[in-house]
Write the structure tokens for this entry.
Amino acid sequence: MPVPSHGLPHPRLWVLWILLILAHPADAQRRDVVVMKNGDRLTGEVKKLEHGQLFIDTSYVESAIPVDWLKVERVESTFRYQLEVSDGKRLVGTIQKISSAEAPNRDFIVRNAGIETRLRASDVVALQSQKINVWRQMKGAVNFGASYVSGSTDSAINLDASTSYPSTKFEIGGNLTSSVSGKTESGRTNRSSPGLEASRL
């Protein structure tokens, strides 16, 4: 059921907001270094860790390369990340992965504001690059669809848009579902359902 839009931003403003997020230019080229246990070395941007796979974006491959996180020997990066540990704790800071032989069960280092936190690398279950401002940290998606019946004046246009901002302590997001349908001679029906969500992590 459509939600009354009194007091909420106009749907077009929601769409513009999300499009600005998606169109924001990418970060400058990064020089993170990942060394595998078999000696292979990758240089580029460490994008994220999810489902046991570390994704590295390099200049010589079109898409990010996934590697097995448990087979990574070292990671060197001067950029900041948000990460999640297996117990649900979330941290933010620059990261370094050293050899487990050098520091058993303490081979992953997070540095933030002069404080160093050591973890077991296998306990790190997710990480993503922390952008330099709120706009770049936000994630969004837009889906658009249209239909038309041949030989009839029936038509429909649908738009779904969403965006979210994750931090170490909370996540806030917005979404918009909008549709226009009907016959040309009998007028159109417009329906818009904006929404906001927030959760404490």
Helices lie at 11-23, 134-137. Residues 11-23+135-200 form one domain. The two ends are 29 Å apart (CA to CA). Residues 1-8 have pLDDT under 50 and may be disordered.
